[in-house]
């Protein structure tokens, strides 16, 4: 992290929960709207080439799946009481907050059990969540500060 105190992981954890709840509420509303459009009598096909109802039902099904996935991510984070703390020389593992450098750019990554790709802002830093589904997550496991990862070089600067 930046020089000075790193962001408190409990604060990050709560920000993740808040963001997931907000996204879940928005997506659930959109899924309800899509379902209503798919089942509305007014969306009945007017001819054999009219696919509005079919398209609306596909959209509703896809959004319902996303709602389920997001709800599961929220359940995981609601059950997670804390993220572990790491010493600077500890190997990277689940829960690590990692500062990396790639092509001269510094990035902050938090290895978490779900919600990969989510961005959280903390103390002026944008922190990207990485989940086990990410290849980068799996490659970072076991690395320590000072390690470099292949081409283009990804250098682990700090682990906390």
Write the layout of secondary structure elements.
Elements: H1 9-39, H2 52-79, E1 97-102, E2 105-111, E3 119-122, E4 125-130, H3 135-140, E5 148-149, E6 154-159
Parallel strand pairs: 2-4
Antiparallel strand pairs: 1-2, 1-6, 3-4, 5-6
Helix pairs in contact: 1-2
What does this structure look like?
It is a single chain. With 160 residues, the chain is α+β, with helices and mostly antiparallel strands. The chain has two domains: 9-79; 97-159, Chitinase A, domain 3 (Roll). Helices cover 41% and strands 19% of the residues. It has helices at residues 9-39, 52-79, 135-140, and strands at residues 97-102, 105-111, 119-122, 125-130, 148-149, 154-159. The protein has a six-stranded mixed sheet. Helix 1 packs antiparallel against helix 2 (52-79). The longest helix has 31 residues, at 9-39. The protein is elongated, with a radius of gyration of 20 Å. Mean pLDDT is 86; it is low at 1-6.
Strand pairing plus helix content: what structural class? alpha+beta
- What is the radius of gyration? 20 Å
Q: What is the approximate shape? A: elongated
Helices and strands, in N-to-C order?
A: HHEEEEHEE
Number of strands: 6
Specify the helix fraction band. 40-55%
Mean pLDDT: 86
Oligomerization status of the protein chains: single chain
Uncertain runs are 1-6
Count of folded domains: 2
Question: Whole-Å distance between the termini?
Answer: 8 Å
Could you describe the largest sheet, including whether it forms a barrel? 6 strands, mixed
Helical element count? 3
Largest sheet strand order? 3-4-2-1-6-5
The share of residues in extended strands comes to 15-25%
């Amino acid at each position: 992290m930046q020089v000075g105190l790193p962001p408190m992981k409990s604060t990050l954890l709560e920000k993740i929960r808040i963001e997931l709840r907000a996204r879940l509420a928005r997506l659930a509303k959109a899924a309800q709207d899509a379902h209503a459009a798919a089942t509305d009598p007014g969306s009945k096909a007017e001819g054999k080439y009219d696919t509005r109802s079919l398209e609306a039902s596909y959209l509703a099904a896809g959004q319902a799946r996303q709602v389920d996935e997001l709800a599961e991510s929220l359940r995981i984070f609601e059950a997670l009481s804390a993220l572990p703390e790491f010493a600077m020389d500890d190997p990277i593992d689940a829960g690590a907050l990692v500062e990396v450098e790639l092509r001269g750019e510094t990035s902050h990554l938090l290895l978490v059990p779900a919600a990969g790709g989510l961005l959280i802002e903390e103390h002026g830093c944008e922190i990207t969540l990485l989940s086990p589904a990410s290849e980068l997550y799996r490659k970072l496991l076991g690395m320590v500060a000072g390690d470099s990862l292949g081409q283009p070089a990804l250098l682990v600067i700090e682990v906390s």
